[in-house]
Amino acid sequence: MAGINKWKLMSLAALAAVVLVLPQVVKSSFAIDIFIRILLFSFIGVAWNLMGGYAKQLSLGHAAYFGLGAYTSTIMQVDFGISPWIGMVAGGIVAMLASLPIGWLCFRLRGPYFTIATIATAQALMLIFLKFRDFAWGAEGTTIPNLGSSPLMMQFEAKASYYYVVLGLLVLGLAITLRIERSWMGYYLVAIGEDEDAAEAIGVNAPRIKRDIYMISAFLTALAGTFYVQYIYFIDPATAFSFNISIEAALVSIVGGIGTLWGPVIGTVLLETTSALLQSWLGSSTGGVQLTVYALILMAVILWRPTGLIGIVTDAYQRHVNRKPARA
Amino acid sequence: MLETLAQAVINGLLIGGIYALVSIGVTLIFGVVKIVNFAQGEFVMIGMYISFYLATQFGIDPIASLVVSMPVLFIVGVLIQHFLIRRVLGPNDMPQIFLTFALSLLLLNLALMLFTANYRTVHTSYSDEAFHLAGLYIPVAKLIAFVVAMGLSGALWVFLHTTDLGKAMRAAAQNRDVATLMGINPNRVFCVALGVALALAGAAGSLLMPFYSAYPFVGQVFVLMAFVAVVLGTLGNVMGALIASLMMGVAESLGIQFVGADSGLIVVFAMLLLTLAFKPNGLGGGRVR
Fold first, then answer.
1. Residues of chain A contacting B108 with CB distance shorter than 8 Å
2. pTM of the predicted protein model
3. Mean pLDDT to the nearest integer, B125-154
């Protein structure tokens, strides 16, 4: 036991050190932008993975909560001058509440049709925000007033500050995942993911567990939405409820390793690095190239490594551990 | 008023015929192979581009190019089943959902790279023709599309009910294990199901070409409609999907007529949400999944 803990602690400490000093060492704003994207989509992936990975409720509609979080904080800030830090939590609560009726509808279907229903709810929300222009600026969206350096309003001069904010979000997401993974709820989630009928037969209250995890997942996804619009200073329905957000949330988890703590992070590092490389090679004229490559990676993972790339890491780790005597 | 209403219903029925071709494909694959083909819309798109190129390069009438688009997509379907889908069939939903989803993403973005996002149209001699019947306006191109679509649906029904292969497909849909015990080769049946479903999508593409623009995202419009129609018509039920598609076409058309030009999608989503809330097993009853 001690051996494993020592190794785990050492690698975690090394990782933490690298991640913390990274923006101090790397000054290129292009690079920091990529790091922020990696952290942000890791966080969204972690939020998705709680429900999609552990309980295998494969949503492709998480943009709904991303958008609700983004719009809640922006409306509060632009119309009422309330700090996005408060708006962020408020957005999370709005998303949590929205997940109740949405879940009530979508959980009536299982498997692929659940997935389709989630797509439809996110698209429907986007249409609502496109239509009601008095309420939320309609299709044009709005820019978020730039106050210069104003940490209390979640606005920073240095890109590195945004980096630490989203790093904090990711740590929060990972901590919640770890907590759930090791609780009864985690076991219930995995049981539901394996076989929902069997889980119910042995007394797991599947509808309640699914509802609860959907609320947590929606809450976290909404936080990412607030952060994102604060970072890009702009919001419109097409950005906030973009289907690409829903796709990427699921994709990074599946490519990295569905239903694992670090899977979404590993998946995001691979996909976002690929995307950044493609962008620097091909310039901005990449219409379709990035998603073509994503699709090919996704197909390759599904056909040859359905447990995700994390399997490669854990296999190597297991081999390493197995070579040591007395695992205790 | 009554005339406007009748006109809206007719418009809806005519486009509903195209939706039916797409929905029948989706429900056939779901019924037989038990997977949802997220890429079905992209095969409509491919059918459209096939017809577009045959029309612009060789002057072949888009509707006549059915004889090319259907066999080509049939073969594509067989290959996709044999080399891709066969490998992910199992108790786990994730690989099945995301394999066809990845396929959709791939085809869509390849189309974006190859054909650009431009809208492509084919102008035929009958594109602007229309019958005027008791004050109603019936465009020839849409009428032909509707008649051919209904003809193909009827042919599929006959195929499923009278031929050995069709009966084998229905048997596999009802109970795969028992069908296998009766000597039905599941992979062969699945290949035919995929082939037929994709051929129908290709037919939909060719039939659309005289009055609709081809662009990489065009399939998304139709697949969304098809998914809703398939839920509404009870999953896996071919006749249900046909009737539900015609209903969806009419509902969309009434929405456009009486609510606003861009309300088509809202009507679709409203119908999906209402179906889920009140009739989650579809109008025909039956069990989910």
1. 288, 291
2. 0.87
3. 87
SS3 per residue for A134-197: HHHCHHHCEECCCCCCEHHHCECCCHHHHHHHHHHHHHHHHHHHHHHHCCHHHHHHHHHHHCHH
For chain A, the C-alpha Rg in angstroms (whole number) is 20
Q: What does the alpha-carbon distance between residue B240 and residue B171 come to, in Å, rounded to a whole number?
A: 18
- Judge whether A326 lies within some domain: no
Cβ atoms of B226 and B40 closer than 8 Å: yes
Residue A86 lies in a domain: yes
pLDDT of residue A159: 84
* Minimum mean pLDDT range among A118-132, A136-150, B98-112: A136-150
Domain region containing A68: 28-242
Q: A294-310, pLDDT tens digit by residue?
A: 899 999 999 988 888 88
Best of B83, B86, B93 to substitute, by most chain A Cβ atoms within 10 angstroms, is B93
Tell me the pLDDT tens digit for each residue of A166-221.
Answer: 999 999 999 999 999 999 999 999 999 888 899 999 889 999 999 999 999 999 99
Return d(Cα A323, Cα A4) in angstroms, integer.
12
Domains in chain B, number: 1
Nearest to A43 by CA among A310, A298, A268: A268
What is the span of the domain harbouring residue B84?
A: 2-278
Q: Which residue has the higher pLDDT, A87 or A110?
A: A87
Q: Of the candidates B108, B273, B289, which has its C-beta nearest A110's C-beta?
A: B289
Q: Write the pLDDT tens digit of every residue in B34-90.
A: 888 999 999 999 999 999 999 999 989 998 999 999 999 999 999 999 999 988 887
Residue A69 lies inside a defined structural domain of this protein = yes
Residue B4 corresponds to which tokens in the numbers above?
Answer: 């406007």
Find which of B92, B276, B279 to mutate to test the A interface (most A CBs within 10 Å of its CB): B276
Assess B115–A contact: CB distance below 8 Å, yes or no: no
* Pairing state between β B130-133 and A234-235: unpaired
Q: Is residue B287 assigned to a domain?
A: no
* Count of structural domains within chain A: 1
Rounded Cα gap, residues B276 and B93, in angstroms = 20
Cβ neighbours of B30 in A, within 8 Å:
112
Only one residue has tokens 């001069």, namely A157
**Domain annotation covers residue A32:** yes
The answer to the question of residue B193 being in a domain is yes
CATH for B52:
1.10.3470
Q: Is the CB of residue B222 less than 8 Å away from at least one CB of chain A?
A: no
Residue A192 and residue A198: Cα distance in Å, rounded? 8
In chain A, which residues have their Cβ closer than 8 Å to the Cβ of B288?
108-110, 113
